[in-house]
Amino acid sequence: MSTIEVTNLSKSYGSVQALQDVSFTIPDGEFVVLLGESGAGKSTLLRCLNGITTPTSGSITIDDEPVNGPRNDVAMIFQQHYILEQMSAYSNALTGALGRTSFLKSLFSRYPEDDKHEALRALETVGLLDQANQRAGNMSGGQQQRVGIARALVQNPNLLLADEPVASLDPASAETVMRYIRQAASERDLSTVASLHQVNIAREFGERFLGMKEGELVFDGYRDEFTVDVIDEIYGDIETEAIREERTTGPNDDPTTRSGARAHEY
Ligand SMILES: Nc1ncnc2c1ncn2[C@@H]1O[C@H](COP(=O)(O)OP(=O)(O)OP(=O)(O)O)[C@@H](O)[C@H]1O
Prior knowledge:
Layout: E1 4-13, E2 16-26, E3 31-36, H1 42-49, E4 57-62, E5 65-66, E6 74-77, H2 89-94, H3 103-107, H4 113-125, H5 141-154, E7 159-163, H6 171-187, E8 191-195, H7 199-205, E9 208-213, E10 216-222, H8 228-235, H9 241-249, H10 258-262
Parallel strand pairs: 3-8, 3-9, 6-7, 7-8
Antiparallel strand pairs: 1-2, 1-4, 4-5, 9-10
Helix pairs in contact: 4-5, 5-6
Adenosine-5'-triphosphate binds at residues 13, 16, 18, 36, 38-44.
């Protein structure tokens, strides 16, 4: 768990301003959902937080330490899970320990006992302990994504980042995977930033919401402030009639309720 401080962050690619003067602070253990249309700057922000993209200006600190490049205590889950299909779920999870194990040892699978224990604990967290020995390539997309989460947890991060982690999954698998990410974060008190494009999933799982538009942070607030008007502001002309209708006719008046969220699938 860590405190993340983003101050006046900007990133431009030539004439494209991908991030513009973005500032926010994430206290220890908070679960933050990042929202915005395609091209709003979500991936750029996550890549800056991960240290793989250098901002044009501004700063990021994790527990007062500046992020100047990739760090072992920051783990990332991607839309494409990049797991090794020929290896078991367990072996894939263990690769999360690579940052602290020598290449030679990892080549001969000679990981320390602590790392092996961590891999099993992580598989248990994502509900795959029973399938630890299963070949990852034979698992479903949702299960493979859960293996990717386990691998990120084995890295033992202070900050967990997820870039569209459920974008390629069917709605039921997306819910399951999000539930495991949320549970893992809360069990380990992990500060988490997850970008999502499904507003219904975001409303169901988010604790705090950052809304981006054309590189700017246009919303930063908690569940009770994350209203339909805010969604309109973030997504511009996206259709929000279903939510509005639901609000006027009830009974799912609260836009953050699970059933309310289900009524509007983007
Ligand atoms: N490496 C790059 N080179 C040039 N332009 C880039 C690069 N990466 C991102 N951009 C541009 O920066 C802007 C923000 O892109 P970014 O990928 O961060 O948005 P996003 O919100 O993650 O979009 P999506 O949901 O489609 O992934 C876009 O205009 C994009 O074309």
